[in-house]
Amino acid sequence: MKQLGVLDTAFINLEQTNTPQHIGGLGIYDPSTAPGGFVRFKQVIASFEQRLHRLPLFRTRLHEVPGNLDRPYWVVDENFDVEFHLRHIALPHPGDWRQLCIQIARLHSRPLDMARPLWEAYIIEGLDNIPELPEGSFAVYTKMHHSLVDGAGGQSFMAALHDLEPEPSESVADEYLGIQPPLVIDHKPNSGELLFRALVNQTKNTATMAKGTVNLARDFARLGYGVIQKTVPLPDIQAPKTRFNQPVGKHRAFEATTFSVSDFKAIKNAFNVKINDVALAVVSGAMRRYLQEIGELPEVSLAAGIPMNMRSRRGENEDNNQVGSVFCKLHTDIDDPVARLQAIHQSANDAKEFGEKSPLVDALKLVGVLSPWFAKGGAKLYSSGKISQHMPVNISTVVTNVPGANFDLYCAGARLVRYHGLGVLTPGVGLFHAVFSFGDAMTISVLADREQLDDPMKYRECLEASFAELKALADKSSEPPVAKKKTAKRRAAKSS
């Protein structure tokens, strides 16, 4: 058995009926590359089953300590049945994009069975009326508890369940992916053993927390000195409440749109910013436009939470999750799209620099350090008591940007043509944006509380309009001087 890490435990402790802590992904596949140009459900099951040896954690279930006195453990599920975790459904006629989004929203709303391995996958057929997809396409929606993987760690899940060619041998696939099948040794723990371990761990945790308190005080002192000396920027995260700061309910809305990575790079190069800045600006413009159209745009800027991958910053540890979080202003109070983009660029840089030196980036770990008995009770009180409504810091959305593979991936011989990520909602933050790049496709996927985003199709149009506005300005700024004069003359002639 393996004990959960501190941050992994935090996501277990935060699990609530209205805010289940699983993330997800929607992959769409073209079966024409498979042998015979067709993929059967049993082939997808076989493909998953053959590759699960690369992910031994996905054969384990959660085993909690009596009384929730200590962090839980992963133990091998002796009754593991891959067919329980793989389901086969089809969209009703006509099988259009809106129906797919509604189906994904419904599936993502349902909590996982916490007594079984914490993941599920759905093969979805009947995508017959989505014009931009290849004929006969099918989708695979997966959801995994956040305690198993984070956004960056989810890439290893994708790598393990996909091939680099339609018909590879098993050994070749593992060689390509650099994966060695691990050996899992396990035994079923009894209550006495778990309570003894809890006692030992509590003793260790007391010493660790004492040391951590000293280190935390030191880190805050360094942070304060850096702020005073103006070597560390202090982000301004005072933001107004919006409809997305209401208590989150049980139901979800999902939408997504696809852009070109090349177009994102063109905007990046035109205004000398980063790809992530462009993504934030597209989201900012969409939120500004959407709230403005319904008469709810605040006069001051909204703010977003931005997850940070801590693997490259602090090295690996026992947690499956290696993620921190910083806050960034979206500058929705700025009308000019280019000025807004430049302001976001500066705010994102300041937020990341602050996060590199601030212990606040690891604030979520506190929920995992505390006893699960205490942490779960606190999380339930925070959610059911709607305490987020009284918090001074208001984050209207979370925006995560995860780069994917720039080469083809295959599942049971079918080529992956599109991928959309789905995140988690938390009490008081009812809107989540997942940005994912795959090949030359850049997808922005939206997960929201269904009551807070009551018109997801309109919001998708706002995302597309926000992007088109930036792209047009980027194209204009890249025109040679002579071309700019000709364009100005044509516009003047049209207006006259």
Please explain how this structure is put together.
- The chain is built from 15 helices and 15 strands.
- With 496 residues, it is α+β, with helices and mostly antiparallel strands.
- The strands form 3 sheets. The protein has a 6-stranded mixed beta sheet with strand order 5-6-7-2-13-12. It has a 6-stranded mixed beta sheet with strand order 8-15-14-11-9-10.
Give a quick set of tags describing it:
496 residues, single chain, Chloramphenicol Acetyltransferase, 40% helix, alpha+beta
Which helices and strands, and how do they pair?
Layout: E1 2-3, H1 6-13, E2 22-30, H2 41-51, E3 60-63, E4 73-76, H3 82-85, E5 86-90, H4 97-109, E6 119-125, E7 138-145, H5 154-160, H6 170-177, H7 191-228, E8 252-260, H8 261-271, H9 275-293, E9 303-309, H10 311-314, E10 323-329, H11 337-357, H12 365-369, H13 372-384, E11 397-403, E12 410-411, E13 414-422, E14 431-438, E15 441-449, H14 456-478, H15 481-495
Parallel strand pairs: 5-6, 9-11, 11-14
Antiparallel strand pairs: 1-4, 2-7, 2-13, 3-4, 6-7, 8-15, 9-10, 12-13, 14-15
Helix pairs in contact: 1-13, 8-9, 8-14, 9-11, 9-14
Short description:
The protein is built from 15 helices and 15 strands.
CATH topology of the largest domain: Chloramphenicol Acetyltransferase
Q: Total number of helical segments?
A: 15
The SS-based structural class is: alpha+beta
Corresponding CATH architecture of the largest domain: 2-Layer Sandwich
Shape assignment: globular
CATH superfamily name of the largest domain? Nonribosomal peptide synthetase, condensation domain
Compressed to H and E, one letter per element, the order equals EHEHEEHEHEEHHHEHHEHEHHHEEEEEHH
Major sheet attributes: 6 strands, mixed
Task: Determine the N-to-C terminus distance.
Answer: 77 Å
Please state how the strands of the largest beta sheet are arranged side by side. Answer: 5-6-7-2-13-12
Helix coverage percent:
40-55%
